[in-house]
Amino acid sequence: MDPRTGLTHFDEEGQAIMVDVSGKQETSRTAIATGRIKVNQAVYDAIEQGTAKKGDVLGVARVAGIMAAKSTSSVIPLCHPLPIAKCSVDFTMLPEECAVEAQATVKVTGQTGVEMEALHAVSVALLTIYDMCKAIDKRMEIQYIHLDKKTGGKSGEFVR
């Protein structure tokens, strides 16, 4: 940890490091992240009715999100590879806002948390919706990606 900043991903000289978790006790850890994509009515209808040309938008986005959670350490340089015990990605259609909300829940028993895995899952799920619907409209907006809750570990529970 860099004593000047308190940041754990830097050493005393300010160099980036992977945090040493070898001395930490394994605990049950969970993270829940949420985000949404704002779309136009044509995109919303195509998703809801399953008529997008590329197929089942939410089904593909769910699988993409789960795959993203499992591969977070290969994309975020200082993340530890984790043996994820559970990952789910669920969607809520928001007709009043013409948006789709994605929520990822990731669980592990390990020495470090799964916040990044949950955030990565939501991000990739939403990007997948964008990719599958961009032929209809390219003005979609990915919004409000955030951590809702995390449990376990030294820092305990966090609820947004």
UniProtKB/TrEMBL annotation:
Entries under Gene3D superfamilies matching the protein: Molybdopterin cofactor biosynthesis C (MoaC) domain (3.30.70.640)
Assembly notes: Homohexamer; trimer of dimers.
Binding site for substrate: L78, C79, H80, M116, E117
Pfam families registered for this protein in UniProt: MoaC (PF01967)
UniProt-listed Enzyme Commission number(s): 4.6.1.17
SUPFAM superfamilies with a match to the protein in the record: Molybdenum cofactor biosynthesis protein C, MoaC
Class of enzymatic activity (EC top level): lyase
Protein's job: Catalyzes the conversion of (8S)-3',8-cyclo-7,8-dihydroguanosine 5'-triphosphate to cyclic pyranopterin monophosphate (cPMP).
Organism: Selenomonas ruminantium
Transferase recorded as keyword: no
Pathway where it operates: Cofactor biosynthesis; molybdopterin biosynthesis
Protein name, entry field: Cyclic pyranopterin monophosphate synthase
MF terms in GO: cyclic pyranopterin monophosphate synthase activity
Residues annotated as domain Molybdopterin cofactor biosynthesis C (MoaC): 18-153
Coiled-coil residue spans: none
